[in-house]
Amino acid sequence: MSILEYNGAAIIAMAGKDCVGIACDTRLGAQAQTVACDFRKVFKMSDKIFVGLAGLATDVLTMQNLLKFRQNLYELREDRELTPKVFSNVLSNLLYEKRFGPYFIEPVVAGLDENNQPFLSGMDLIGAPVYTDDFVVTGTATANMYGMCETLYKKDMEPDQLFETLSQALLASLDRDALSGWGATVHIITKDGVTSRELKGRMD
Amino acid sequence: MARRYDSSTTTFSPEGRLHQVEYAIEAINNAGTCVGILAKDGVVMASEKRVTSGLLAPTKSSEKTYKLCQHAACNVAGLTADANILIDQARLRAGRYEYQYCEQIPIEQLVEHVCNYKQAYTQYGGLRPFGVAFLFAGYDAHHGFQLYQSDPSGNYSGWKATVIGANNQAGKSLLKNEYGSSSEEKEGEMKVEGAAEEIAMPDVNEALRLAVKVLNKTMDATATSPEKMELFVMSLKDGACVHKILNKDETQKVIDEVEAESSAAGDS
Asked: Which of A80, A148, A156, B265 could join A17 via S-S bond, C-beta 3.0 to 4.6 A?
């Protein structure tokens, strides 16, 4: 058993035309046992930055608090908002600080930059980042999610189409993974605001 | 005679004084005035902006008021360089508290932390004290809106209304007469506990006008204008603290209201 697979998670972030979407499942388990079905792993850091944290639940919650702390300090000192790229670097730096005793999380960052263009990044548990312009996935069902995204993804999708694509990709991936599922939440971020929806899927 | 005892911060004089600390306080009495007034629905802080040169580049959002966390802010009188260190300390402390407890730091604890930091420089290390006095404005669920003042010695106290910086005595005497207009009003020094027991606590708009009135008295120039002062208001909106620095038009409006009041009352 891998420590990263103890609680279970599935997160996809996808880019569209002047928008990004990020979706996660809502299962919290203790190996085979399901403990909660409302444990969201995607957090809003600001109107333009969302972060998805997959992995050990305790580290997910701790990292969320730590990121909030660092974001507040940045905004107080610099008197301006964090941009997604800088936020991603902060996260990467935080993870590498614990290089020899890491946080067991593999995050994704989704947001809109200063020009309201989509930004996506993913990283491993010690902070090695990857920047893409299409999609990033993380969690216990990555093999499924990569397959679904490669098949369903198209460039420059409008927000409504992005929502459909993202939801179908996630829902189909969850079904074949025992450790994720039990509900899903999708956020679509545009310059005019965020739309969040709950998905109805198999509750098993 | 005091000379022998005034170069080291960590030595008392025979009269039981710490001269370095007192000299630090002197440094602040030459700095731009800051007024703080507690209102029933918020806290108001007004400060004198000393523009030394027209060539100075415009600062970020403020040069006197600093946000410490979502529910606290402070005004500075004294050496800005010293203040920057302390403000950073306060921000870190507030952030760490929230990280540890997932709750906002109570204002007095934040003030006490900054003051303890200042006190260390009056007792250890042979370093000089910080030449800064602060006005802290904050809100917490335990005691509502609060106003605190701190000085280089690390001493602090809670106030309903107070003044620091140049001509603070003149400012304080005006406040003594005009704040609350209640006869049993003391100097206004007390820890604010719970809701306003004093009948005549002003609201934020009255407090703003009173603050401008105090600044008019303490500032050297006879004509007051929005460029020379900075007005800050902290209030609650939908349960969360809102920090607002009034823009030029809003500041002018308050100045005009104070003008109208004083000419109507026939003040000189």
From this structure: A156
